[in-house]
Amino acid sequence: MDDVGKDASVEPSNANDDSLNYHTPNMAPDWQVNGNNLINTSIGMMSVCNSMVESPACSSPSMVDSFCPTVWDHSINGQSLGYCDVNVHNDASTSSNLGSVRADLGWNPSAMLRGGMFMPPVSGMLPNFPADSGFIERAARFSCFSGGNFGEMMNPFAVPDPPNPFSRGLGVVHSQRHEMNMAELSKEGGLFLRKPGAEGSPFKNEKRSESLHDEAKQGVGVSGNDSDEAECSGRGPQEEVACLTGESPGKGLGPKKRKRGVGQNAQNDENTETPTRSAETTKDTGEMKQKGDHTTTSNSNPGGKNGKQGSQGSDPPKEDYIHVRARRGQATNSHSLAERVRREKISERMKFLQDLVPGCSKVTGKAVMLDEIINYVQSLQRQVEFLSMKLATVNPRLEFNIEGFLTKDMLQSRGGMSSLGLLPDMTMPFPPIHPPQPGLIQTCIPSNSAEALRRPINLQSPSVCAGFKEPSSQVSNWEDELHNVVHMGFTSTAPSSSQDLSGSLPPGHMKAEP
Amino acid sequence: MKNPNTLKKKLASRFLKAMKKLKYKMSPSPPASIAEKKRRHRAVRAAAYASMASAVGPRRAWSRALLRKMKGRKRARRNPGNMNTRFGLNHLCDIVPGGEAMDSCSLLNETAHYIKCLVAQVQIMREILHSSSSSSTIL
């Protein structure tokens, strides 16, 4: 809440967000004053500001506060209009600010992307574990690395950590799973290669890496697989079982499906058969036992791994474990492999998220992606707030008796909504209507819909719309077009309202007809 | 995953039902005071999230968490073991409902689904608003 106070005080100095009030994420009380403004952006900015204050080790809070809204706005602007509808007013004012502020703070995605690591959130923490950071950075890089560059990986790997007990090189490290004490390792194994940037636990990483070093020393070495299985299953529950929903220790193949989605089914099959031939340091995390053994062959490198694995002898299959193969030049320590498996899973999910979040296709690196995702979710939540606020004012006047009609036609037909009532009368040309139509929305917004909305039409709308079912044939893209229309409305200025009124229908009609 | 259209339909129907219920509670005249407006707004927002969570059902962790919040039950315990595996997802877990109790991998899953549902919900609300405003301003 300190940030709230700070934001409130800083707010008058913010040129960009004119009358935005920095309030708690709960609805700002003065929203109605900013009827046409992005009130909710303040909420998002608040949270963004908070996160920004926490994460970058940067600068004075005031700087961050002033920076946040601009950053947020810019991020919104930069991304697709899909969720930019509330950015009308901030665009112009903040774009210029953003450039400078962004440069000032050095809030660069590129900065965070170094080595593909998460940017260490607190600069003060960095000096504490230089060796680890370097090593972890490389390890992180390796996980994302395609298999073709094993040779390159060999050298750098040897450099940073002389005390590193990891065995280098290919080794068919037979699933040495569990010399280690599982209970501890379950927590630490995940940690060992954790990037120093992991928020909230950089120190833990440091400590744990030390202990892991010791354990790794013990762990290195080929051991029988059977004992491993038993222990692995014991470990299973403690681990991120949630990640592997419904997988049971007994099923070697089932869990593999989880990774299979990535498209490595072939490898999976192979690997189950020959678990021991690869460096199956099954992860201490129970995931190991559940995934197929090649899962660590990252998604990006199915081919390389296959060749290598195929060349190995055929050992008795160890189905219960996720047999992870160490890549060439990578540590074959069970911890690192387990870590790699985890990381690859996570990057797989991040890729999926990347598709969901608009405008993230060019972004690389987990840190930036995460930021984008967080921004996106926050903006969506803000939109929900904003729209609910508007609906709240509109609500008493809304005739939800048309809701049945809405649900049917909104979702199935195009132009069902905007064709209410006046469709038969509208013969205006459609294309010119688009510009005026946004104005309609804009006029509604400033007036808080309270006065502008009269509902006499609703009476006839159901009948008219019923008659107007024929455009329902065109189901596709209705929502998209509506989106575009709405966004146009939100992003363009409004012509006179008289035009708007007439313009409201034809766009809907236009969509329906072609 | 879920077909976006079916998801939207489900969300829309639930949300509209919730809004209808809300409507009866609200006075037909515009709210006089700011407090009233805030209250209404909060009610609508709660309706939006509640309908979203109930439409999704208890299949998803985030919807479960949301429903838990709605019903006033205490939040799920944060699993301490998850903190180690966070990879900097701490902010995300604060944003996505129920994020504290999940590990990174499932957190990302939940986030993806949550985003999908949020997008659909926003679309629906916008469409409702648009339809109502357009219908009213036609004349």
TrEMBL record, chain A:
This is Transcription factor bHLH49-like isoform X2. The lineage of its organism: Eukaryota, Viridiplantae, Streptophyta, Embryophyta, Tracheophyta. Residues 330-380 form the BHLH domain. One of its GO terms (cellular component) is nucleus. Residues 11-24, 264-279, 491-502 have a biased composition (Polar residues). One of its GO terms (biological process) is regulation of DNA-templated transcription. It comes from the Eukaryota. SUPFAM superfamilies: HLH, helix-loop-helix DNA-binding domain (SSF47459). It comes from Salvia divinorum (Maria pastora). Residues 295-314 have a biased composition (Low complexity). The keyword Cytoplasm does not apply. Residues 1-27, 186-319, 491-514 are annotated as: Disordered. Residues 204-217, 280-294 have a biased composition (Basic and acidic residues). It is found in: Nucleus.
UniProtKB/TrEMBL annotation, chain B:
Residues 5-72 form the IBH1-like N-terminal domain. Its main location: nucleus. The keyword Translocase does not apply. The keyword Repeat does not apply. Keywords: Nucleus, Transcription, Transcription regulation. Pfam families: IBH1_N (PF26576). GO terms for cellular component: nucleus. Coiled coil: none annotated. It is found in: Nucleus. InterPro entries: HLH_DNA-bd_sf (IPR036638), IBH1-like (IPR044660), IBH1_N (IPR059002). SUPFAM superfamilies: HLH, helix-loop-helix DNA-binding domain (SSF47459). It comes from the Eukaryota. This is Transcription factor IBH1-like. It comes from Salvia divinorum (Maria pastora).
